[in-house]
Predict the structure of 6584_t:CDS:1.
Amino acid sequence: MIHTSKRPTPRCFYIITLSLFMSSLYITLSFGGLLPSIFVTTSKVYEEIYDADTLDFLIIGDWGNAGVGKDLKHGPQANVSKAMEYVANKHDSKFIVNVGDNFYKRSAKDYQGILSVNDSKWEEIWLKVYNSTNLRRLTWYSIAGNHDWYTNVTAQIDYSLTVNSRFFFPSLFYVRSTLFGKDLKLKAIWIHIDTNIFYYDVDSIVEIKMEGLKSNLLNFGMHTQQAVEEKFKWIEQSLIDNQDADYIFVIGHHPLIGICSQVNHMPRLLELLKVYYVSAYFSGHNHVLEYKAPTKASPVAFFISGAGCKTGFGCDGKDWGMPRGAYGL
Ligand SMILES: *[C@@H]1O[C@H](CO)[C@@H](O)[C@H](O)[C@H]1NC(C)=O
Ligand SMILES: *[C@@H]1O[C@H](CO)[C@@H](O)[C@H](O)[C@H]1NC(C)=O
Ligand SMILES: *[C@@H]1O[C@H](CO)[C@@H](O)[C@H](O)[C@H]1NC(C)=O
Ligand SMILES: *[C@@H]1O[C@H](CO)[C@@H](O)[C@H](O)[C@H]1NC(C)=O
């Protein structure tokens, strides 16, 4: 469990690991109409109120696959789901922060991501898998990872807006505000962003390895310097607008730990988070559970929670992490 203290005074994170079916990483903040175009970034803030002293939430990433050679009951995805149920029940978790790579291939012949709002993956590797007593009441605040871009990322947004808003994904970039604590005096701001356009140099993507990522980014005009500048400007404005918050969290798919923070435009994102005193940045992409603590030079705590159904390598730069091979949230 990780407790975060309020910004801008010292923020230390206390980490206790929890061994269950697998390892878990979760967080408690303690006292202390129309289908919008997905390119458009708005200044709308989605507001939530939690009548609770603490705001407990789960973070999961890179989850949508039963696991190689494993079935949906006993594979890593299902086991992580059981751990989530345990934690959500024990700590009365309020929602799930989904850091992207929502749908993988189910088999070698399958496709990445989803194709439409009616894709069978919605039921098979989302609704059915996380359908235990406590999990099925929680909203997933979602973003897209590269695997979601490989096919139809618009369909994921469309699903959220027209089929099931429990998969909360109204656009590629959005801001939420959560009030909680005594007399609802604590405010946490959540800035959900799409880091694909910062992480990838579209021109150098070899299409065959990245499936549709390149063509989709090109089709959406996300590859241009102008698009990149607009998104950075929107992020910066959102940070400026919310400096009164007790906590500011930014959520993007690609990590900002170690070497991962040095890729393409990622250093600019890192700099913005530091300048505006962001409490923490949550990511996935690398299939590990890792943490990098705030320092004097950087007030931001960095998390990677990308072990929802796969395990892999980290970013060389963590202060703490679960051993390689651990699944979890
Ligand atoms: C999932 O949990 C079951 C039962 O606890 C265990 O037998 C199985 O090996 C686990 N699967 C993975 C991939 O760890
Ligand atoms: C999805 O299914 C609904 C109900 O069967 C149907 O009306 C709709 O056209 C389908 N949409 C797509 C994109 O397949
Ligand atoms: C989820 O669980 C409920 C209650 O057991 C059940 O009615 C529903 O059909 C399940 N949904 C899915 C998609 O499996
Ligand atoms: C992708 O999804 C959108 C939104 O549901 C839909 O309108 C569009 O036809 C889909 N594209 C393809 C190529 O299937």
Remarks:
- The CA atoms of residues 287 and 311 lie 5 Å apart.
- The first helix runs from residue 76 to 91.
